[in-house]
Amino acid sequence: MSDMREPGHSGRLSMLSAAWVIARRDFVAILFSRAFFFFLLGPLFPVLVGILAGSVGQRVQQTAQSPEIGLVMAEADARRILAAREALAARLGESVPRMTLVHALAKGEDYEPRSALEGRAANIAAILSGTAEAPELTGPRTRIESWRGPVAMVAAQAQAGELAPWPKVRLETTTSSSATERRGRLTTAQGAQTLLFLLTMMLAGMVLSNLVEEKGNKIIEVLAAAIPMEAVFMGKLFAMLGVSLVGIATWGATVGAVLLAGSSVLPTLTTPAVGWPMLVVLGVVYFATAYLLLGSVFLAVGSLATTVREVQTLSMPVTMVQLLVFFLASYAMTQPGTAIEYFALIFPFSAPFAMLARAAQDPALLPHIPAVLAQCAWVLLLVRLGSALFRKRVMKSGPAGVKKARRSLFMRKAGAKV
Amino acid sequence: MTGNAPSRESAAKAPVSPDPARALAIEARGLIKSFDGTRAVDGVNLSVPEGAVYGILGPNGAGKTTTLRMVLGIIDPDAGVRRILGHDRPHEVAHTIGYLPEERGLYPAMKAVEAIAFLGALRGLPLKEGRRRGRELLERHGLGHAADRQIRQLSKGMAQQVQILGTLVHRPRLVIFDEPFSGLDALNQGRLEAMMRDLAAEGTTVIFSTHVIAHAERLCDEVAIIAGGQVPFAGSVDVARDRIPAQVRLETRAREGAWRAALPADARREGRFWYFPLPESGIEPLLRALIEGEAGILSLSIERAGLHDAFVAIAGEAAARAMGQDAPEETGS
C-alpha cells in the first residue's frame, strides 16, 4: 500500500462522463455476450416461421382450392367438353374450372350423378352430366352457382367447335393509381410501425434484464455510490441503443446484400412519401426515442422489482399498455386529420409510431422537428423520474438478513418519540 | 466528538463544524430516514475527523448501512444535514472517496484487472491507468496470477479482495468499508486490518462498520455506537471503555471477617475470587478497609472494561430505551 498516497489521476466525473463509463462497460459486455448473438438472430425466427407457415399454407390452399368437375356423360360429349375447356383455359387461365372424366356412359346406361360425388377421394366438387347441348350440374349450391357461368361457356364452346380469333388488346401501363399508391404507402407505414414496435419491445426487455442482472450481481450500490443514478440510467439506455444500432446495421447490411444479389424474396413496398433514405433516417431517430422512452419506463419498473419473477409481473402491464398504444398508432394512421390521429401524434409513447407512419404518408418534414424535440424532453423527464424512483426504492435497506433483524429488538417505529 | 444524539431541534441548530481546529471528513447532524413507515435511522450525529480510523459499531439492523448510504449520497435523508470532505453533495467528491458496500458485487464475466480498472473509472480514474494500477495492486497482494481470470472463476474471498483493491485503486482520501471483514477468513482479516493501518498511516481517513468489536478495538481511534437508529455513544475507544466501571478482582486468605463490610453489595464470589466494580471513591479506601479488617490480601487487580463490554452495555441501554419508547405506541397510547 506504500504508493497509495501518490498523486492520483482521478478527477470528478461530469454526468456525461459518468454515463459514458457505464455505457462503455455495458456496450462491450453485451456485444460480446450470447444475448447479442441471439438478438442478431432474433429477426430470423419470425422470417423462418413466416416462410414455413407460408409454404405449408400454400400447399394446403393448393390442395383445398383445386376442386374439379367430374364428367358423367357419353364419351363423345365428354371429349367435346374437355377439348372446349382446354381451348378456353389456354386463353382465360385458371378461371375456367378443371374437368375430368369420371364415368363414360354406355349407350342407354342410367347413372345417378349424386352417386358419383359420394365416397370419392379426388377433388370432385360437382358432377356435370347430360350433353353439351343440355348440361346438368350437380353439387353443393354455392359451388354449382359459381360454376354455372363457366360451365355454360365451356358447353357453348363445345357446341361451337373451333375457337373464334380474339382481337388483340393494346396495353397502356401506369405506375399506379392514386388509390393503390395510398394503399401501398399505408402498407409501408404499417410495416415500418410494426418493425419499430418489435425492435423497441425487444430492446426494452433486454435493458430490463440487464438491470435485474446488475441488481443480482449487487454491483448497483457501487455504481450508486460513485455516480448519480441518472448517469447509470443514461449509460444503460444508451449502451443498449448502441448495441441495437449495431444490430440494425448488421441486419441492414444483410438485407442490402440480399437485394444486391437480386433476390426477389423480399416483398416490394411502395416508396414512402418522404422517400426511402429519409424514412430510414426518421425510422432510426424515432426508434431511438421510442426505445429510450420505453426503456426508461422499464428501468423504473426494474427499480421496483427485486427478482426476475417480480420483473415479469410488473413489466406485463407495461407491455400490454404498449401494445394498446401500438394499436392506437396503427388505427390513427388510417384516420388522418382526426382527433385520434392528433392524440397519437402528441402522446409520447405513441408519437414515434404515429410520426413514422406519417412520414410514410405525408412528405412534410417540418413537423418532425418539434416531434423529435418533444420526445427528447420526455426521455429526459422519464429518466429523471425513473432514477429518483430507483434511489427511493432500491437502496432502502441492507441485505435480507438485515431486514429481518431490523424487525427485531432494535427496531423503532416511525413516529416514536425521539 | 459529541456523544449522545441531541434532540432534533438542537440537531438542526448544531454548528456544522463544532471543532474548527480539526477538519472533519464526515459530519452528519440529525440524520433521519424511514422506510415504509419504519424509522431506520432516527437523528444520527457523526463527526469523523480527517485521518482517523473510525469504527461504526452496532448490532444487525441498527442503521449502520443506512447511515453510511446517506452519508455517501446513495440515498437522501428525510431530515438532517451531512457533509463529506467539506461538501454537501457527496457525488461532488466521489473521486476522492472509496466505498466497499456490505453486499459485495462485481460483474462475473469481467477479468479481475478489468474489474479494478472499472471501479477506478467510476471514480474518474482513466481506464488505462486503472489497469496499470490494478495489476500492480494484485501483484502486491499475492493475486497477480488472478489478474486475467474472470471474477466468476475466483473464490468468494479472492473476489472480495479484488473489490477491496478496486475500492482503493484511485487513491481516495476517505475510504468507507461496510462490514469489510465478513466473508474473509482469519488470515485475510488480518491482511485487511494491516491494509487499513497502512492507509491511516498515509493520511487516509478510514471508516468501517462492524458488529465484531475486536476489529474496532484493535484498529480504531474513535467509534460511534449505533443502536435503534440512534447514536448513544460516539468518542474515543478509551472513553467508551470508561463508561463501564473497572472491575476489581480480589483474593483473600480469610474467608470471613470484618473486611467483608468493605465490599460493595453487588460483589460476587467466583471460586477463590471476589469480583465487583471499582468503587467511586477509588481503590485506596477499599485497600485500607481490607487491611484493617484483616482480609489477608493474596492478590488484588483492577481490570479495565473492554470495548466489547462497553458496546454491550451502551447498545443494550439504547435498545431498552427504544423498547420502552415503542411499548406505549404498541398499546395504542
Description:
The complex is a heterodimer of chains A (418) and B (333). Chain A is α/β, with parallel strands linked by helices. Helices cover 66% and strands 7% of the residues of chain A. Chain A folds into two domains: 66-160, 3-Layer(aba) Sandwich (D-Maltodextrin-Binding Protein, domain 2), CATH 3.40.190; 178-395, no CATH class. Chain A has 15 helices and five strands. Chain A has a four-stranded mixed beta sheet. In chain A, helix 4 (75-92) links the parallel strand 1 (68-74) and strand 2. The longest helix of chain A has 40 residues, at 178-217. The radius of gyration of chain A is 34 Å and the shape is elongated. The two termini of chain A are 43 Å apart. With 333 residues, chain B is α/β, with parallel strands linked by helices. Chain B folds into two domains: 8-236, 3-Layer(aba) Sandwich (Rossmann fold); 245-303, no CATH class. Chain B has ten helices and 13 strands. Chain B has helices spanning 8-13, 64-72, 112-122, 127-140, 156-168, 186-201, 213-219, 237-242, 283-292, 307-330, and strands spanning 24-35, 38-49, 53-57, 79-84, 97-100, 174-178, 205-210, 222-227, 230-236, 247-252, 268-270, 273-277, 297-303. In chain B, strand 11 (268-270) and strand 12 (273-277) form a beta hairpin. The longest helix of chain B is centred in the last third of the chain and has 24 residues, at 307-330. Chain B is elongated, with a radius of gyration of 24 Å.
Offer a quick outline of the entry:
The complex is a heterodimer of chains A (418) and B (333). Chain A has helices at residues 15-31, 34-41, 44-64, 75-92, 113-117, 141-160, 178-217, 220-226, 229-260, 276-304, 308-333, 339-346, 351-361, 368-393, 400-406, and strands at 68-74, 98-105, 124-130, 135-138, 412-413. Chain A is α/β, with parallel strands linked by helices and 418 residues long.
Topology (elements, then pairings):
The complex is a heterodimer of chains A (418) and B (333).
Chain A: H1 15-31, H2 34-41, H3 44-64, E1 68-74, H4 75-92, E2 98-105, H5 113-117, E3 124-130, E4 135-138, H6 141-160, H7 178-217, H8 220-226, H9 229-260, H10 276-304, H11 308-333, H12 339-346, H13 351-361, H14 368-393, H15 400-406, E5 412-413
Parallel strand pairs in A: 1-2, 1-3
Antiparallel strand pairs in A: 3-4
Helix pairs in contact in A: 1-9, 4-6, 7-9, 7-10, 7-11, 7-13, 9-10, 9-14, 10-11, 10-13, 10-14, 11-12, 11-13, 12-13, 13-14
Chain B: H1 8-13, E1 24-35, E2 38-49, E3 53-57, H2 64-72, E4 79-84, E5 97-100, H3 112-122, H4 127-140, H5 156-168, E6 174-178, H6 186-201, E7 205-210, H7 213-219, E8 222-227, E9 230-236, H8 237-242, E10 247-252, E11 268-270, E12 273-277, H9 283-292, E13 297-303, H10 307-330
Parallel strand pairs in B: 3-7, 3-8, 5-6, 6-7
Antiparallel strand pairs in B: 1-2, 1-4, 8-9, 10-12, 10-13, 11-12
Helix pairs in contact in B: 3-4, 3-5
